[in-house]
């Protein structure tokens, strides 16, 4: 059983390294949600979070970016899936609701894509703020 666990852990770590490399080969800046991973491991999602190794991936990504002179920006995750990425209006939805439909600007897209656009925009704003203060 220990061999199987090691094999799974090694496979996961290899995937994390390859994914980090792929992202950093394509982008100079990567924005991620600043999640309380320890806190999330105490919720009903604990098994899924531990199985994917989020913390390990973020550590690998950050270390590789720093070594390459690139940036990883952690942004506030609050409301990324609720806020319309097109107009900024807050659109309440249940976790089971997979589409983002804004009744203000009529934007309609996958909830995860909407959140990803918001994370990208917050990352760009954070990068601009860092640049302006230096």
UniProtKB/TrEMBL annotation:
Pfam family, one: Cas12f1-like_TNB
InterPro entries (alphabetical): Cas12f1-like_TNB
RNA-binding keyword on record: no
Gene Ontology molecular functions: DNA binding
UniProt domain Cas12f1-like TNB: residue ranges: 54-119
Keyword terms, alphabetized: DNA-binding
Protein name: Transposase
């Amino acid at each position: 059983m220990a061999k199987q666990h090691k094999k799974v852990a090694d496979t996961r770590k290899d995937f994390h390294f390859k994914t980090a490399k792929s992202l950093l080969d394509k982008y100079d800046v990567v924005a991620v949600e600043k999640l309380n991973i320890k806190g999330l491991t105490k919720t009903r999602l604990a098994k899924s979070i531990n199985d994917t190794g989020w913390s390990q991936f973020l550590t690998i990504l950050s270390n590789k970016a720093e070594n390459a002179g690139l940036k990883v920006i952690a942004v506030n995750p609050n409301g990324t899936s609720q806020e319309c990425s097109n107009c900024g209006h807050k659109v309440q939805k249940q976790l089971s609701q997979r589409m983002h439909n804004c009744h203000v600007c009529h934007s309609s897209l996958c909830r995860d894509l909407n959140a990803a656009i918001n994370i990208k925009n917050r990352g760009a704003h954070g990068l601009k703020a860092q640049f302006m203060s230096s």
